[in-house]
Every structure is written in structure tokens, then in C-alpha cells.
Write a structure and sequence with these properties.
GO biological process, one term: carbohydrate metabolic process
Function: Catalyzes the first step in hexosamine metabolism, converting fructose-6P into glucosamine-6P using glutamine as a nitrogen source.
Helix content: 40-55%
Order of helices and strands: HHHEHEHEHEHEHHHHEHEEHEEH
Number of helices: 14
Number of strands: 10
GO molecular function: carbohydrate derivative binding; glutamine-fructose-6-phosphate transaminase (isomerizing) activity
Largest sheet: 5 strands, parallel
Distance between the termini: 32 Å
Bound molecules: 6-O-phosphono-alpha-D-glucopyranose
Catalytic activity: D-fructose 6-phosphate + L-glutamine = D-glucosamine 6-phosphate + L-glutamate
Radius of gyration: 20 Å
EC number: 2.6.1.16
């Protein structure tokens, strides 16, 4: 009913709007007055966490993209090797698991069969499993050694939005917590990132306030057949998520690529007026990364692409090459997906509406896939 949707036309719109609160709620009570993380819920004791020598993340769909981003954060802040794998592939390839492997299973519903089977397999090999889940008491957290709940609240729209942002927050918390427990050489950075994270909901809110041009752009592209998405570093999984949202909602051919792979194939797809969304990393953090993507934008534009550039406020280097410029607030490099994903959700939702699609219940899809 309209009341359930809180005055919005679709649950998805309501859930997109709820993201600042979902992010803040997921942080609530997990950072103490001294800016340290207190994750008592992670019942895996600190000594076991100190001994962990490998992390494997398993998930499906949007949760898998959160896992891909988590890998960048975990390896950078903890120096523990981390793999991410689609749950549906994981147990069929005889993965190397032992009691010092920490497996992280990410699932909004807690009922996805592939993810559940992956975690069962991991536990049979003696590995510890930490679930990141949005649904209290669901099967995946019940069968795990520990659980860090995301506090997105119920997500009704099939295409995941607020659950994704809270999965990212939970992944950052786990990564920073591991860094804290293990006392890595990144101690100061960990401290400052916790502070930045505790402030991030405001920036998500800021993005939401500036989405009208994105909606307008989406409507103008409603008769296109293809949209490509490019990113580097954590912007790469964001590109994959942007493409997934567009497939799910707009039923358009959408593909995400690592921008560095352009020359190895995707650039052959560029033709006159093809919309290409590019997620640009902060020009402050790692400038090499930023410079490389600016030249990628130049390359595709020279071949006729219509460039839709998502870049940090104050990033002037992209201006000459952006046919459409979507501004996001400045964040630390690793946290950027929390703000960069939001315009892509709005973009896909508006395109779906413009194409007359059912936003909350896309054809052929289910909110939770409980069969293999
Ligand atoms: C389905 C949903 C996706 C979701 C995926 C994983 O495909 O349509 O939105 O990302 O399942 O779901 P989970 O509940 O495990 O996060």
C-alpha cells in the first residue's frame, strides 16, 4: 500500500532514501567514545582473529559486489590475504580451507542457498564463518560461528540498495576491527578511517539531495540499448553494481569493466553516442589511479562515447571530458563506494520507470533465491 511505501511510488525509492539512516544505524553502538571499534557480537575470540592467515568472502549478486570492495579494505588495513568468490562457484572447486581461514558470508536475506551451502562447506573443513546479514535469526547467521548484523531494516524491493550500503559498512567495520585487533602498521590510518566512517551518513544524504540531474539524464537515455560502466580499484565493483542494477531494473544490456581492461577488448564496443558511466577515484588519495582513469575517459570520448562521469567535488581534471558530470562528496578512497553507488541506483530506478518497468518486482527475479 501507499502507506507502507511511506509516500514514495516504490519501495525502492523509499529504500534509497533510507540509506543515510541505514548506514548510521549499522554504525550505532559499534564505535566507542575513544574512537575504537567494539564488535562484541563477533564472538570469534581475538586470539583466533590474530591467528587468521587467510580470509575468504562468499556471496551472491549485490552482496558479492560488497565482498569485492571488502577485499580492497581488508588487504590494505590488515595485510591478510583475502579472496572473494561467488558462493555458487566456491565449493565446487575444492577450495583450500583450514581452521586459520576466516570465511565471511554476506547475505541480505540470510537464506540464499548458494551462500548457505558455501558456508556449510567451509565449516566442514574447520574454518570459522562470520556472517554479515540483514535478517535476524535467518539460516545463514544461525549456522555461522558469529554474525555482524547490518541494520538496514526490512528491504522489500528485489533490487538491493540500502542493504548493499550497510553491507559495505559492515565490511569496513570488520576490516578495521581486524586491523585494530592485530595492531597493523596502519594504526593511525585505521583510527582516522573509523572517524571518517562515523561521519559518512551525512555524505550519503548530501548525494541524495543532488539527484535530480541524474534522473533527468536517465529519462533521456530511455531508448538506448546498452550502457557501459567503468571503474578502477574500488570503483570497479561499483561499476559492476551499477551495471547489475541496470540489468535488473531497466532490462538493458549493461556491463561493468575494470577501466584498465579497456584496451584488452571493451574499447571495441565504443561507438558514437554510447553512454559510458565512469566512476572516478579521488584525485587526492592515489593520484596515479586518478590520472589513469582521466586518460581512459579521454580515450573513450575520442571514439565517440557519451561520457557520464561520477567524480568528487573539486575534481577539475575530468571537466573537459565529461558530457555529463555527477558530483559526489570527497571521501577517503576506500570509502568512496558508499557515495558513488547511490547515483547509479537512482539512475537505474529512473530508467526502469521511464521504460515502464515494474520497479519493485522486476521480471524473472526473486528477492531471495532459496534454490541452487
Ligand atoms: C537475489 C536478489 C539480489 C541479491 C542476491 C543475494 O538475486 O535479487 O538483490 O543481491 O539474491 O541475496 P542475499 O539475500 O544473499 O544478499
Amino acid at each position: 500500500s501507499a502507506a507502507e511505501k511511506g509516500g514514495y511510488d516504490y519501495f525502492m525509492l523509499k529504500e534509497i532514501a533510507e540509506q543515510p539512516k541505514a548506514v548510521a544505524d549499522t554504525l550505532l553502538g559499534r564505535i566507542d567514545g575513544n574512537g575504537r571499534l567494539t564488535l562484541d557480537e563477533v564472538r570469534i575470540d581475538a586470539s583466533a582473529l590474530r591467528e587468521t592467515d587467510k580470509i575468504v568472502i562468499v556471496a551472491c549478486g549485490t552482496a558479492f559486489h560488497a565482498g569485492m570492495i571488502a577485499k580492497y579494505a581488508i588487504e590494505h588495513w590488515t595485510r591478510i590475504p583475502c579472496e572473494v568468490e561467488l558462493a555458487s562457484e566456491f565449493r565446487y572447486r575444492d577450495p583450500i580451507l583450514d581452521p586459520r581461514t576466516l570465511v565471511i558470508a554476506i547475505s541480505q536475506s540470510g537464506e540464499t542457498m548458494d551462500t548457505l551451502m558455501a558456508l556449510r562447506h567451509a565449516r566442514e573443513q574447520g574454518s570459522k564463518v562470520l556472517a554479515i546479514c540483514n535478517t535476524n535469526g535467518s539460516t545463514i547467521p544461525r549456522e555461522s560461528d558469529a554474525v555482524l548484523y547490518t541494520h538496514a531494516g526490512p528491504e522489500v524491493a528485489v533490487a538491493s540498495t540500502k542493504a548493499f550500503l550497510t553491507q559495505l559498512v559492515a565490511c569496513y567495520l570488520v576490516a578495521l576491527y581486524l586491523g585494530q585487533v592485530r595492531g597493523t602498521k596502519w594504526g593511525d590510518e585505521i583510527h582516522s578511517q573509523i572517524r571518517e566512517l562515523s561521519d559518512i551518513a551525512k555524505q550519503v544524504d548530501q548525494v541524495l539531495e543532488t539527484m535530480e540531474p541524474v534522473r533527468e539524464l536517465a529519462r533521456s537515455l530511455k531508448d538506448k540499448n546498452t550502457v557501459l560502466f567503468l571503474g578502477r580499484h574500488v570503483g570497479y565493483p561499483v561499476a559492476l553494481e551499477g551495471a547489475l542494477k541496470l540489468k535488473e531494473l531497466a532490462y538493458m544490456h549493461a556491463e561493468g569493466f575494470a577501466a584498465g581492461e579497456l584496451k584488452h577488448g571493451p574499447i571495441a564496443l565504443i561507438e558514437e553516442d554510447l553512454p559510458v558511466v565512469v566512476v572516478v577515484p579521488s584525485p587526492r588519495g592515489r593520484d596515479v589511479l586518478h590520472d589513469k582513469i582521466v586518460s581512459n575517459i579521454q580515450e573513450i570520448r575520442a571514439r565517440g562515447a557519451r561520457t557520464i562521469v561520477i567524480a568528487e567535488e573539486g575534481d577539475e581534471a575530468v571537466v573537459p571530458y565529461a558530457d555529463h558530470l555527477i558530483r559526489i562528496p570527497a571521501t577517503p578512497t576506500l570509502l568512496q563506494p558508499l557515495v558513488a553507488t547511490v547515483p547509479l541506483q537512482v539512475f537505474a530506478c529512473e530508467l526502469a520507470t521511464a521504460r515502464g518497468n515494474e520497479v519493485d518486482q522486476p521480471r524473472n527475479l526473486a528477492k531471495s533465491v532459496t534454490v541452487e
